[in-house]
Design brief:
Layout lengths: L12 E4 L3 H12 L5 E4 L17 E2 L6 H16 L3 E3 L2 E5 L2 H16 L6 E3 L1 H7 L10 E5 L3 E3 L1 H14 L3 E4 L4 E7 L2 E7 L2 E4 L3 E3 L5 H7 L6 E12 L15 E4 L4 E6 L2 E6 L24 E3 L6 H10 L1 H4 L5 E13 L5 E4 L6 E5 L6 H14 L21 H12 L24 H6 L2 E6 L2 E7 L4 H6 L9 H4 L4 H12 L1 E5 L4 E6 L3 H8 L11 E7 L5 E11 L2 E6 L1 H13 L8 E4 L4 E7 L3 H6 L16 E6 L2 E6 L8 E7 L3 H12 L4 E3 L2 H11 L33 H9 L5 E7 L18 E2 L16 E7 L4 E8 L9 E6 L2 E9 L16
Parallel strand pairs: 1-2, 1-13, 2-9, 5-15, 13-21, 24-34
Antiparallel strand pairs: 3-8, 4-8, 5-7, 6-7, 10-11, 11-12, 14-17, 14-19, 15-16, 16-17, 18-19, 20-21, 22-23, 24-30, 25-28, 25-29, 26-27, 27-28, 30-33, 31-32, 32-33, 35-38, 35-40, 36-39, 37-38, 39-40
Helix pairs in contact: 1-5, 1-9, 2-9, 14-19
Bound molecules: flavin-adenine dinucleotide.
Flavin-adenine dinucleotide (FAD) binds next to helix 1, strand 14 and strand 19.
């Protein structure tokens, strides 16, 4: 390889950090045709002293997240191709019954994401594969033969060399980035210990240092360096005759938050069980100061004491042997984020400043490929929506938030995390103007985008008597965790009378100016050239015609469109819209999320309630579905929008945030005689939505499926161009490869007679129990699950291969190790409740 490059004064892109991520990314940019690339690291090569240099380097592919599994599988493919992957197998062992159930869940996730070669083992079977384990301590294990270890440093070298051989990349070790100059919110140049480089594109692949680098540009990469303790013991007599670096499966002792993995004649023992030990990037020693390397901090023995005892219990044969000593022990540093997910994509603060941080070795090459695709084509083959760095609201970037969530999440690294589990730390940051009223009504708050949102109201417990047997209870604790039958009762009260909903978590922004129509037209699939006062629900597509988002747009005037989108993805949507504004400055975006609040009012009595509060005409003729206008409610001027995500007559009512509590009181006092109830997001987001088969972004709608497959290609394609149009037109000309269907569960009885209720993400199987795979290799799984109280059935949504997408087709769904019969109820966008949509149009 060329030893000495000439220092470049300019570059097409500069990648900072030569760990697994930076090396992978530089290679993939080169592979995609980028040239004039520069890769810098402050440390020496091939091991510059980052986390990659001391990773245990093992990879377990199964994860409950589809996105993380896809990134891992892609990484394994690349590691295998590069010849640096050694398959060892891996076993996640259970010490508790609860963990055994979790292992069943992992079996289901494996099947849902297409990893078939997995099985549950008895303790004796575990012992056969891992002879040094004490099998009396465990109840069983989850075996994944495709687990393996990699040489991540070697992979990095191979990746760099490939890009260098192409003539696309110059590499500079021992070169520290000291500053990033930004002009007009765009990257202009970087300053390094060797000199400056003019560039418009910088990718921060700096692992635990990333926040510090982002700050140089006035941006934020919200992660915290955190300690993960690891020791290496040996030489282990058991391993004396083994030839390779690893011959025994890696053991993850899930209930103690630890792992044990053979490393030649030694055994590495790692722990996520100790107290969270968080650092700041500024505290990390330099390469010169560090005793070992900057990310191998001195071992704090006290934090490992309990873990040593736990390890002794599981592998006494190895650890009780007096000849086995501790060879190496570190407080290794890795990156933790507030929600446990990576930080990928262009930062919302600075154009041209990209982040590829909080990534593990197991995802590195997959992330490198995906971020390079995103940089090159505007989107990646693997959907990165959960990892998008644009997802955070301001408070979520704060040091306090990141550290409190990271500390809370650390001991859950191998935890049993319920799909609806709520965070405990740093709550009550965003409170809606209805909050005090909601508290009085016994709201049980879940968090969304930092907002406290009622999920159900304890004061509605009385509705359980009213609706009696129509409210399905859940017998199994897991199914009923983070859930209440009150949700179903609130739902029925809404369908029979009316309910109000706190929708303050909506993200709201206005697109204004002479170029506003062009701006919204360009990113919306549906026609935006509509009359003032129209409300349009539209998919937002990527260039490949799959989902970037779905949201509603209100046309408020000639040069004003109000975009309303879900809180969770709102900030990423805001960035997408901002990125597509016309270059001539003829349109602007104003974020109004914290200026306006929203109260939902829906149900057959909604018009009676609203009508008695206003002199304005709210009849169907005067105020039709999908329209909005300002009406007066007492002294409030309220923007009312007649749409519904729960399939009922009613309105979203928008007022300036300081007038929210007045609005609540008006609607509440007027509504009570009509039997109005407060209802939570359990109804809004699940039961009400699912009965109407409304799709949700991040569940049914993602980059893996297109509009036709999602059953949303109704109407004509508009004439003006929009992002994704060509692909969308092509999709409409083709037969869909999968069809989004609603299924209902026919029998909930498990083997022991307990009735079980799926929660989502379970594999959908043929009647004979085999996986359903479409022509693109995608597995059928439950995208959303929830009760349909009005139809008395549990509803599941799933994409099915066309040959299975027949109404009445009988299939199976696997839930916690058992299979339950389900039937396809609808195979287009027809709802399972009120199929003619008479209610919303009444
Ligand atoms: C003990 C331990 C065991 C682990 N085991 C595993 C495992 O088994 N499997 C797994 O998947 N993951 C594992 N991990 C996690 C994994 O090591 C990291 O997530 C991963 O290596 C991060 O890679 P990276 O490229 O993002 O960062 P790094 O490897 O840290 O690379 C970042 C680079 O940025 C450079 N840099 C920083 N600042 C500057 C600057 N100003 N100028 C120039 N260069 C700069 C640094 O020198 C560094 O080389 C483990 C972590 C620890 C601590």
């Amino acid at each position: 390889m060329p030893e000495a490059y000439q220092w470049p004064t300019s570059a097409r892109a500069v990648v900072i950090g030569a760990g697994i991520v930076g090396n992978s990314l530089a290679y993939h940019l080169a592979r995609l045709g980028w040239s004039d690339l520069v890769l810098l690291d402050k440390g020496p090569l091939p091991n510059p002293g980052g986390s990659t240099g001391h990773a245990s380097n093992f990879i377990f592919p199964v994860d409950h997240s589809k996105e993380m599994t896809q990134l891992t599988l892609e990484s394994v493919r690349q590691y295998r191709d590069a010849g640096v992957f050694t398959q060892s197998g891996g076993i996640e062992v259970a010490r508790t019954e609860e963990r055994m159930q979790e292992l069943q869940r992992r079996m289901a996730s494996a099947k849902a994401w297409g990893i078939d070669d997995v099985s549950l083992l008895t303790p004796a079977q575990v012992k056969e594969l891992v002879p040094f384990i004490e099998e009396s301590v465990i109840l069983g294990g989850f075996y994944t033969p495709s687990v393996g270890i990699v040489d991540s440093l070697r992979f990095g070298t191979i990746a760099r060399e490939r890009a260098q051989e192409q003539g696309a990349l110059s590499v500079f070790a021992n070169t520290e980035v000291l500053g990033i100059d930004v002009e007009n919110r765009r990257v202009k140049r970087i300053r390094t210990s060797r000199g400056d480089i003019e560039t418009e594109t910088v990718v921060v692949c700096c692992g635990v240092w990333s926040p510090k680098i982002a700050r140089m540009a006035g941006a934020s990469i919200p992660l915290t360096p955190a300690v993960h303790q690891m020791i290496d013991v040996g030489p282990v007599p058991h391993f004396r005759d083994t030839k390779g670096v690893i011959e025994f499966p890696i053991v993850r002792d899930m209930d103690t938050n630890m792992y044990e993995r053979q490393d030649g004649s030694g055994l590495e023992i790692g722990s996520y069980a100790h107290r969270p030990i968080l650092h700041d990037p500024e505290e990390i020693p330099s390469n010169e100061e560090a005793a070992l390397s900057p990310t191998e901090l001195p071992f704090t023995e006290k934090d490992f004491q309990q873990q040593m005892e736990d390890a002794l219990e599981l592998i006494p044969d190895v650890l009780n042997d007096e000849s086995v000593g501790i060879k190496y022990a570190i407080n290794g540093l890795l990156s933790l984020t507030a929600d446990g997910l990576p930080l990928l994509g262009e930062t919302p603060e600075v154009k041209g400043l990209w982040s590829a941080a909080a990534v593990w070795v197991k995802e590195g090459p997959g992330v490198g490929k995906s971020v390079a695709e995103w940089m090159g084509h505007g989107e990646s083959e693997i959907d990165l929506q959960s990892s998008d760095i644009a997802r955070f609201y301001e408070h979520q970037k704060s040091r306090t938030h990141v550290r409190s969530r990271a500390a809370e999440g650390f001991n859950k690294t191998y935890g049993i995390v319920h799909p609806a589990e709520q965070w405990e730390s740093n709550r009550n940051v965003r409170l809606s103007p209805f909050h005090a009223r909601e508290r009085e009504l016994g709201a049980v708050f879940f968090e969304a985008a930092g907002w406290e949102r009622p999920h159900w109201y304890e004061s509605n417990a009385k509705l359980l008597d009213e609706f009696g047997d129509r409210v399905a209870r859940r017998e199994a604790e897991w199914d009923a965790r983070w859930w209440s039958p009150i949700i179903n009762a609130e739902h029925l009260a809404m369908r029979e009378r009316a309910a109000i909903f706190d929708l303050s978590a909506f993200c709201i922004f206005d697109v204004t100016g002479p170029g506003a129509l062009d701006a919204v037209q360009r990113v919306s699939m549906r026609q935006m050239a509509v009359a003032d006062g129209k409300v349009v629900y539209t998919p937002v597509l990527s260039a490949s015609g799959t989902f970037k988002s779905d949201l509603t747009v209100m046309k408020l005037g000639d040069e004003r469109f109000r975009v309303v989108t879900g809180g969770a993805h709102g900030m990423a949507d805001l960035k997408w819209y901002a990125d597509h504004l016309p270059d001539d400055g003829s349109a602007q975006i104003t974020d109004l999320t914290s200026a306006w609040t929203t109260l939902g009012l829906w149900g057959p009595r909604a018009r009676d309630i609203l009508g008695s509060l206003t002199a304005d005409d709210v009849s169907h003729e005067a105020f039709p579905f999908a329209s909005c206008r300002t009406i007066e409610l007492d002294s409030l001027r309220v923007l009312a929008s007649r749409i519904s995500y729960v399939g009922e007559l009613g309105w979203e009512l928008y007022v300036p945030i300081e007038q929210g509590s007045r609005l609540w009181d008006l609607v509440w006092e007027t509504g009570e005689p009509h039997g109005l109830v407060p209802a939570g997001i359990g109804v809004y987001g699940t039961t009400g939505r699912l009965e109407k088969c409304y799709r949700a972004f991040g569940f049914e709608l993602d980059a893996d499926y297109d509009v036709v497959e999602a059953g949303m290609a109704w109407g004509r394609v508009k004439t003006p161009g929009f992002v994704g149009k060509n692909a969308h037109v092509t999709h409409r000309d083709q037969d869909p490869v999968a069809v989004l269907c609603a299924l209902t569960v026919d029998d909930h009885s498990s083997r022991d007679g307990t009735k079980r209720y799926m929660l989502g993400r379970e594999p959908v199987l043929s009647k004979r129990g085999g996986p359903l795979v479409d022509a693109h290799g995608r597995r059928s799984y439950v995208t959303s699950a929830g009760a349909g109280p009005s139809i008395g059935k549990h509803i599941l949504m799933s994409y099915l291969p066309p040959e299975n997408a027949n109404v009445g087709e009988e299939l199976l769904v696997e839930y916690l190790g058992e299979q339950y019969p389900v039937t396809v109820a609808t195979n287009d966008s027809t709802p399972v409740f009120d199929p003619e949509n008479t209610r919303v149009r009444s």
